[in-house]
Amino acid sequence: MNQLExxxxxxxxxxxxxxxxxxxxxxxxxxxVVCVSRTAENSEKVAAEVRALGRKAWALAVDVSxxxxxxxxxxxxxxxxxxxxxxxxxxxxTRDGLLMRMSDAxxxxxxxxxxxxxxxxxxxxxxxxxxxxxxxxINVASIIGLIGNAGQANYAASKAGLIGFTQSVAxxxxxxxxTVNALAPGFIETDMTAxxxxxxxxxxxxxxxxxxxxQPEDVANAALYLASPGARYVTGQVLTVDGGMVx
Length: 247
Prior knowledge:
Layout lengths: L7 E5 L4 H12 L3 E6 L2 H13 L4 E5 L5 H15 L4 E4 L14 H29 L2 E6 L3 H4 L5 H21 L4 E8 L5 H4 L3 H9 L9 H12 L10 E4 L6
Parallel strand pairs: 1-2, 1-4, 2-3, 4-5, 5-6, 6-7
């Protein structure tokens, strides 16, 4: 039995990596999926993969840090789909550098995409969730938001902020049957980690009890759980998917 039958999921940052894996996982479990990415090419590519699984898909190119663009996208999604059951705020960027050399632009870019983007999309769909008295909001944070990382003050701040945002919104919306949770992936094999040197990867593996980097599907499986009926009584939580790195 498909766990997400007759549900509509919206996934930001769906064009590749973790977002793509979540979109395809949801589709494999019966959901129709709105694939949101910064570029039309990437969003349409994943939407085509969703359709190949026999589900409906919509592709939208949206700058998640642009309030007008997000509000317009939300209006179109609700008009085209009729409802939204699951929102996954996954869009994220990095602009790494030591604090003393970090530009205002690099700080703003990361905070605006990773944190403000989640705020804007969540706010845009909250009235709809409240009206239907149901909904699942899943924010993709990071273990870096829990432990920090040298050279990633902006990224760590955005992901730590996302965790606080998750818990606050969970308290606001819980009485309406809406759950809000965060995923905190560890080091997952995506474009973001592909540039790591062999030496750095070897060092990381020594710190991960399961002795391997994660796969996007590992995070997608955790997202599926939080979106599924089995997580009805789970809200305000941070689920780490990190091979035990920060236990």
